[in-house]
Specification:
mainly alpha
Amino acid sequence: MAATNDEAGVTPALGKDEGGKPPAKSEQTRALILETAMRLFQERGYDKTTMRAIAKEAGVSVGNAYYYYAGKEHLIQGFYDRIAAEHQAAVRPVLDQETELEARLAGVLRCWLDIAQPYHEFAAQFFKNAADPDSPLSPFSAESEHAREAAIDVHREVLRGSKTKVPEELREILPELMWLSQMGLVLYWVFDRSEGRTRSYRLAARGARLTTRGIALARFRVLRPLVREVHELFTDFLPGMTRAPQDR
């Protein structure tokens, strides 16, 4: 007997919209296909799950499944978008209450680990695909831009609501560097086999402390060129973050 979404650790997304009305049938079908795919990815693994199997489990035709999602990679993009949306909602209590930068950043990272926990084994299965810089599953790919920007927006808000003074010239680039630091945490989390991912939580706390100290030091004018140079290094060489010269 197949596991239910709750048993598989997948959060149902078939509730009402912001106006309190049930979502349209097309959105219900889209959400059902995504829910089913996430469950099968967890149960069978990413590589062994086919679009045909997803359609069968969801009770839709294969053509209908492909109508909503052009392939498994697009289902992963739906997963990325869901994680980003759940994270944005989960961080609200932290960002509404905390004003210390370290507490805000540590809370945001901790919330991400909480949200991602049910998907740990699944993430480890498809990471080899996501690690390929040419793969649409890469967090730096053009296909991942929506989820990436949503995550960077969270870090923009982390800075905006903190008591820490941030030099105006660094306000645009620091959130991107903070997100890159979070990607380092994600990479560690994927391979973390400690019980309850406790080592990842410890890394998040220490990383937040170190990042806060680095941002505090950036108030010294002599260190700001170094921060900009680090940011330019990433934007010049990381796929998905590369910008045209006039944009820098």
